[in-house]
Design brief:
The protein has a single domain, classed as MetI-like (MetI-like fold), CATH 1.10.3720. The protein contains 11 helices and no strands. α9 runs antiparallel to α11. 28% of the residues are buried.
């Protein structure tokens, strides 16, 4: 099991792994059967004719899809640039020994983990402009993503801290480091290293959340797909191409996360997260 998974979940036993393997094989077979039936039906309907696909090799079509991909990557990149530091700050606040700070962070995290992202986007699109809070289209998408994702990322950081052996904190305090010094110099570097594959995998979530840009008419990949289908009526072909683009990007991110996990390997000082012992706030 990967390190990223061990941080958040208990490792499955032999029976659970065997059951998971059987279910996976059955699921793959069912998916292949469904895909085969779908392709057969599309072939009978003439949707697999070459002329319906050749248009996507021309410059105008590639430009529209390329602009959508650029918009998706911009929204995803900006969301990550803001959500990851904010999530780290929220995790530190929730680990704070000061109750007001800890309560504030806990309230933020629990609130924005509970609100559907689309509802928050509509709030920025329809409700807030009535109160003179009218952001540009790009930020009407990015800000809600950051608010929700930072709450999730904060819990990932906190899980990394609690997965470390308590002795790391005690050793730091034994050599005279204060609470925040031990966090900054000893605990956080190891915790970030521990959850780094999970954080990279979180980019996949941010990428998929950017598809909600259609709600604010932001020209990301899905919105550009809508534009193409309105002009060409090649609905199936357009969204198959877009799906392939998303699969390739997500596969690349998944490979990066796996490579980082293999690179880091087993970490000294980490422990199973099944116990509640962790870095308890101290004065």
């Amino acid at each position: 099991m990967s390190t990223a998974t061990r941080v958040l979940f208990d490792a499955p036993g032999p029976r659970a792994r065997r059951r998971t393997t059987i279910l996976t094989v059955v699921s793959v077979i069912l998916v292949l059967v469904v895909i085969g039936l779908a392709l057969a039906q599309l072939g009978r309907a003439g949707q697999l004719e070459s002329y319906r696909w050749s248009a996507f090799t021309t410059a105008p079509y590639l430009k529209v899809i390329g602009n959508g991909l650029l918009g998706t990557l911009k929204a995803t990149g900006m969301s990550a640039l803001l959500a990851f530091p904010l999530g780290g700050l929220l995790a530190l606040m929730r680990l704070s020994a000061r109750r007001p700070v800890r309560w504030l962070a806990t309230g933020y995290i629990e609130l924005f983990r509970s609100i559907p992202l689309l509802l928050l986007i509509y709030a920025f699109l329809l409700a807030l402009p009535r109160y003179h809070v009218n952001l540009p289209i790009f930020w009407k998408l990015v800000v809600p993503i950051v608010l929700v994702s930072s709450a999730v990322i904060a819990e990932v950081f906190r899980a990394g801290v609690r997965a470390l052996d308590r002795g790391q904190t005690e050793a730091a305090q034994a050599i005279g480091l204060r609470y925040w010094q031990s966090l900054r110099l000893v605990v956080l570097p190891q915790a970030i290293r521990l959850v780094l594959p999970t954080l990279i995998a979180q980019l996949v979530t941010l990428l998929k959340e950017s598809t909600l840009g259609y709600a604010v008419s932001y020209p990301e990949l899905m919105k550009q797909g809508d534009f193409l289908t309105a002009r060409t009526h090649l609905l199936i072909q357009t969204y198959v191409i877009i799906a392939v683009v998303y699969v390739l990007i997500n596969f690349l991110l998944g490979q990066i996360a796996a490579a980082v996990d293999r690179r880091l390997g087993r970490r000294p000082g980490s422990r199973a997260p099944a116990t509640d012992a962790g870095m308890a706030p101290t004065a």
